[in-house]
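This part of the workshop introduces the protein records we will be handling. As an example, a complete record with its sequence and its structure tokens follows.
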Amino acid sequence: MVGHFQEFEDEYLEMMYEFHEETPGGVVRTGDLASKLGVSPASATEMVQRLASRGYLEYIPYKGARLTEDGLAHGQKMKRRHRLAEVLLELLPYEGNPHETACRLEHAIDDDMEVALSRLITKDTLDPSGRIIPEPTEDIAARLNGLPPTCALADMEVGTAGRLSVVLMPAGEMEAMAQSGFAAGAHITRTEGGFALENGWVAQLSEGAMKSVFIDIIDHSV
């Protein structure tokens, strides 16, 4: 079932997904849902019934509700986008509240942006709070499978080569990196001694820099 979602509807399904992470397939009491969202039980019940009428929740009177297949897919998508936004904010020189900002950003992330953000993580990446980032939906996964694998310099294994694709740094630091040879499209190989550029220079970078520079992997000789 497909329909237009308002932000508060996204929030309900996203919170239902959080309960699902703790107890897959479990029934969530509307009082518990209301408490988590900071709304009245009456408001939570009204929204649960609305989402149930649209096929996203199964409402069980006097007990609560559980996610349907469609509801699970939407809640998982929104939670993934929220945690991807938090990962991005952690990579940036961002000094605000990452959780609150991610709550706003997640509603603006479309499929194209999700694909772009997904390329900044690996299957083992956790969000800043140490939580698992949900798997992408089938359509997003299919798009990602058609792209070259991406990783941060920090995650490159010795013998891996690639072309620099993304630098998440303040403008001044980015310019300095580019002048050192770490510009978009630069060929980089991870060696025992550091990161080798095409001009033969081998650089050693700080941990922060290695986490902020990403490559498209083009060869893995190990």
In short: Strands lie at 57-60, 64-67, 150-152, 160-167, 187-191, 194-197, 202-203, 213-220.
